[in-house]
Amino acid sequence: MSMREICRGAACLALALAALPPHALGQTPQGPYGFGSAASQEELADFFAIPADGRRLPSGSGDAARGAKVYADQCAACHGAQLEGNPAKGIGGDKLIGGRGTLASSTPVKTVESYWPYATTLFDYIKRAMPFNAPGSLSDEDVYSVVAYILSKAEMIKATDRMNATMLPKVIMPNRDGFEGDPRPELQLYR
Amino acid sequence: MENTPTLVLNDNVRRLIDAIVIAEQRHLAERRSEEACACTEGMFPRNLPTSRRSFVFAAGSTAGAVLAGAASAGEQKAPPGAQFYEVPADPTKELGRPVGADGGYGSRSQFETEVRWRFPTANEYTSWSMSPLDKIVGNLTPSGLHFERHHGGIPTIDPSRHMVFVHGMVQEAKKFSIADLKRFPSTTRKYFIECSGNGLTEWVKPTLKSVQGTHGLISTSEWTGVPFATIAREIGLKESAAWVLAEGADAAVMTRSIPLEKMLKDAILAYGQNGEAIRPEQGYPLRLILPGWEGNTHIKWLRRLELSDKPFMTREETSKYTDLMANGKARQFTFEMEAKSVITFPSGEMKLPGPGFYNITGLAWSGRGRVQSVDVSTDAGKTWYPARFDTVPEPISTVRFSFPWLWDGKAATLQSRCTDETGYVQPTLAQLIAIRGANGPFGSIYHLNAIQSWAVSADGSVSNVHA
């Protein structure tokens, strides 16, 4: 009779696990339980999340000229022909440009242009969740292109600038330094 | 500056708030029309034995319409979550329903009508719904009344095909099925979840009339799952890991970056809610629970955790769930939900029938730990009295409090104030605005945890006020 069979409870389990060779409980030596299975590179390949340094931006590129077409086909219905947003019932697309200089006012206007700190976030979000009714349907080239179009309309890049994995992280957004960490808790609210 | 962008956003936010005011009025008007008798005058949940006109739903729209024992084919006359049965004149003079006629899963009474209602954002796929706090009793929120926030609709996920991948800066990338996760030792805790946008309409002036509108984005459940720390030990982390990206399997592919310290401290990969599988609207089959942190970080339909050395600066953690201050700088990664409380009875749109005894009751909570004490005032905060706890305070869970009040029939302003175990005292709105600035709800949208005031007028009617 093995220790596992005669033991009950967490303390016993720990004892039993310690007594067993690493491979006895499952297919991997790392974990004490051996549950789950190895994730292959193929399985992980389609996942993405792109931080501000642009790490893991895909290959390919795009410019505003192509982006204007993508925008007209895929984006304008909800975000407006002039990127002004569309509050209509059933739509509700955000305004994308404008609002620079309003953040310290009583009615700030938060847009990609005025508020978003990183251009990489724009790529990540469009590739991830846009267009709203067909998320994840755009090619990387289309995403680079429509990102270039929005950034050029916001006058952050020139209309002829090509966006790719090298150039996109270099775009300095106007509100790049507009964020700070959480200063709470606020001591004046303590008794 | 720009060509009138200010007006555009003003219009958008104002339009949104106008729409929610109308939606709430419609909801309240429906309820008033259901009044069974004048004596209740909106004070207590009403039973509606005769008036079913607003509960006529097309066949198939009610839960269990196809089950044996349900009302005859055609119209099903019952509120959501209930089935309609003929009401006998005397239930002691005829047999009731046979055991098992409900198919083995119970439903609520056909006389119980409370529902969440949706904040009327332009797009119903990215929207939120509010819990009816004025009618919920006790401490736990019924799973079917838990508030919702969705950014791309509610996905339908087959748990037998769902995996959560844990990868990035780990010793070995692994994937876990729901069955795998259920083999690990589990943990079960009662935690509240609050949307950091709870109360966003209330920054400038009292806007919504009921507590469902002003505070309905908080709910409490018992959550069951595997601590992330267990998974971390299972796969091994690399020294460089400091943040974890959590990603959902919905159409928004929702992502938030979470400090590893929090993940190791008390994060749960939850598959259970209130004793059964987590509800689809709450993330079935798997949700990340981050006790005390803003609701948006509790990623639903969890499919991936990526260990990283830095945050990913996703759309939600830069452009959305950040707090723009009066000076134009925005606070980022403001995760904790600070101490807060609200009186749920009496609350907005109720009417007290006359002077006499009332058991004031409400909910209090803190994302930083246990609720230490709750004080109640009936004179707009001039005098405070300690409230009674009706439930045992647990960390990062709601507490049901109460306070015996003998109303003399004169105008009164009711408030509650929560102090948590760290010594933090729930602020007044004036205190909060002094810190955050007066740009709400345009700049400062989130984390409104100020003291709520309900005015009771001499005729007994109760309304939302700033006092």
Plain-language structure description:
The complex is a heterodimer of chains A (191) and B (467). Chain A is mostly helical and 191 residues long. Chain A folds into two domains: 3-37, no CATH class; 61-170, Cytochrome Bc1 Complex, Chain D, domain 2, CATH 1.10.760.10. Chain A is 30% helix and 4% strand. Chain A contains seven helices and four strands. In chain A, strands 2-3 form a two-stranded antiparallel ribbon. In chain A, helix 4 (64-74) crosses helix 7. In chain B, strand 20 and strand 21 form a beta hairpin. Among the domains of chain B are: 159-331, Sulfite Oxidase, Chain A, domain 2; 340-465, Immunoglobulin-like. In chain B, the strands form seven sheets. In chain B, strands 7-6-15-10-11 form a five-stranded mixed sheet. In chain B, strands 8, 9, 12, 13 and 14 form a five-stranded antiparallel sheet that branches. In chain B, strands 21-20-24-25-26 form a five-stranded antiparallel sheet, with no helix packed on it. With 467 residues, chain B is of the alpha+beta class. Chain B contains seven helices and 26 strands. Classes of the chains: A mainly alpha (191), B alpha+beta (467). Chains A and B meet through strand 1, helix 6 and strand 4 of A and helix 1, strand 6, strand 7, helix 2 and helix 4 of B. Strand 4 of chain A pairs parallel with strand 17 of chain B, so a sheet runs across the interface.
- Terminal Cα separation of chain A, in Å? 61 Å
Query: What's the CATH architecture name of the domain at 159-331 in chain B?
Result: Alpha-Beta Complex
**What is the strand tally of chain B?**
26
> What is the domain total for the residues of chain A?
2
Total strands of chain A: the figure is 4
The first-level CATH class of the largest domain in chain A is given as: Mainly Alpha
The name CATH uses for the topology of the largest domain in chain A is Cytochrome Bc1 Complex, Chain D, domain 2
Going by helix content, strand content and strand pairing, the class of chain A is: mainly alpha
Give the structural class of chain B: alpha+beta
**Individual helix count of chain A:** 7
The average pLDDT of chain B is: 90
**Number of distinct helices of chain B:** 7
Q: What percentage of residues of chain B falls in helices of 4 or more residues?
A: 10-25%
Query: Which oligomeric form is depicted?
Result: heterodimer
Strand order in the largest sheet of chain B = 7-6-15-10-11
Radius of gyration of chain A: 25 Å
Rg of Cα set of chain B: 23 Å
DSSP helix fraction of chain A:
25-40%
Q: Report the uncertain regions of chain A.
A: 1-28
Any guess at the CATH architecture of the largest domain in chain A? Orthogonal Bundle
Query: What does the largest sheet of chain B look like?
Result: 5 strands, mixed
